[in-house]
Structures
1.
Amino acid sequence: MNSVQQMMNWLNDPLNWTNPDGIVARLLEHLRLCGGALLLACLVAWPTGIALGRRGRGSGLVVALSNATQAIPVVALLTILPLTAVGFGARPVILALAVFAAPPLLATAHTGMREVDAEVRDAARGMGLSGWQLLWRVELPLGVPYLAAGLRTAAVQVVATAGLAALVNGGGLGMIVAAGFGLQSAGQILAGGLLIAGLALLVEALLAGVQRLVTPGSLRRI
Amino acid sequence: MSFLAQSAAANPWFSWAYLRTNADTIRALAVEHLSLTVEAVALAVVIGMPLAVLAYWVRPLTGPILASAGVLYTIPSLGLFSFIVPIFGLSRRTVLTGLVLYALLLVIRSAVTGLSQVPADVKEAASAMGYGRLSRLLRVELPLALPAVVTGVRLATVSTVALVTVGVLVGRGGFGQLIIGGFWNNFHKAPIAAGAVLCILLAVLLDLLLAGVGRLLTPWRRTGAGA
């Protein structure tokens, strides 16, 4: 029996879906971890990126931050955080994932604000808009396509990275693959891999659609 | 736990004693980490550059080539590795294949960007001087695209160094073995910190090295403003 067939058999067993640590439970856990991480990253990165971008400052910082996080292995962060004051459980996983989601969010928010035409800003000021009105009515609407692009990158990254939490028993769909290695079950390993890959591609496709919807036609080239 | 005769053993993040007694293991893992990274990036360049040239020469293929590399890049590392395990088993080749597939997108994308940014009048001048398609590519277009290619290779190298650690899944994770091994060995902090720090050091070192190589390869860019 080859491994693809074993995978089909594993996926066809309803118990593998409904078990307490079955696919459904692991999927919900995966989405909870990712949602938490994304929310945390947005809450920190967007205001920072917008504030820095509006003042036209911090380009160096944004670039340095995204380069630095490239070099940090996810595995290291997932392992170190539980042993610090953060403690074990979902919190260190969410925090680690948020660290990797923040740079694309920060960079796109920054770019989005920088790309607002200075003349548009001038015109809005001339019409008597205050600082907050300028932000809410002019700059943010113009920056939405950039924010959406960053959200898509960050979300796909988080969904993909969350699989690695299983290496430190952190939950999520990766646990299926890890358990498969423990049981020496090629079918289960493959099934877990397929579920993780499928979820990442699905999120990518969905958010690409969202990004298209919120991007005006003339800007659809990013 | 006060009822125990002995208090808990010290578990510092950094310990010379650990590094000294495990120097051989660490050295072996360093060799594994470095060789996996270098081989993966080299293979990605060898496979990726012809694909990039193909995408550049045959316009209708640009989209499909970039898109398929992009899909490969989107597949999470854990998923990708578990697809390769049934083919190559728990071997070094499993990790290497996964690393190459990830590095491919970064190499191809940067090379295509670099090649398509060669000014049209430069290409025209080269053709007018009698360069054929291939010699124009080798002597005019590729050298001009080199800075972009070097940037792509640097990016691929740094992310590959970080990604090697995922190889712990099949027991070939370089410094990742120290990190995950320490975690499961009763949260022994010394190997975790050593693995993480060495991993980042390796990434920074290779990045600086490649930046230096890039400067040596493009002497004409050094005369103006420093890059």
2.
Amino acid sequence: MIRSVIKTTLPILFGFLPLGIAFGILFQELGYPWYFATLMGICVYAGAAQFMAVGMLGAGVGLFEIAISTFFLNSRHLFYGLALLNSFGAWGLRKFYLIFGLTDETYALMTTIKVPQEFNRERYYFLITLFSQSYWVLGCSIGALASSSLNFNTEGMDFAATALFTVLLIEQWLKVRKPLPFVVAFGSSCLALILFFQHMLLAAIVLSITTIIVLRFIKSKKND
Amino acid sequence: MTDISYLLLVMVVMTVATYATRLTPFLLFSRDQERALINFIAKNTPPMIMTILVIYMLKGVNYLSFEGVYTFIAILATVVFHLYKRNALLSIIAGTAVYMIAVQI
């Protein structure tokens, strides 16, 4: 099972490692001991929010503002859980961890891949989450530790995330084979890019879910 | 307040705020709850969010520079590889390698 999980999460490794390293290097400029970057990767475990935090820590922003900003920056996760309500098994420590470790990348994997039949689904998801977070924590630590002496040129490696989402999009198409959700999402994204460039991600998610619900409502009215 | 305690407080606050976004839907809706609308949303969000995530990743690209060309070629490589072999890992490695080589030389 571990070999299969490593193979499945390898794209996440390519995405998280350079991004984590970038975070570690940036974090180091604040002047804290390196292991706080590690700690942040373990406790907070949110890419965009951690980058935002570096700026806010540097500026000494108040805790309340940090709490609100973090919540809104990550609020797209509110919608991720909806698709996974029945996938994480019974309440318990494992489920709490699976929810804690829900990121764009693990969400994308879990909703698209098929868990090989011989493995228990919840254990498989648990390992996906655990490995992904390990890559992230490793990246944060390496970046903070070796911020001045890093030689390997990772430029462009972050394209792995784009490639991962592209592949999963193709897989979604092969699975769903109905144009409607893709068209709705594409339209919502374009509108969100025009209206809310900075907050495009959340705006597009809210817009597309609203649109598809309205479309469903109209359709059911017609049928009545 | 010393610097370290400020940092630790920020981390606690951020941990709670992030976890709240991830935990809320699981607390609001119980599993096995047969609600037509929730099921409908659950079924339709993955394809929609995948579409949005791809566009989101591409929004920062400067399309009037070489970056735009490289991105286009790398995406094309990823898609072609994937349709041809249907091996996710291979497609992602191929696309990323194409992109890294393009931006580094």
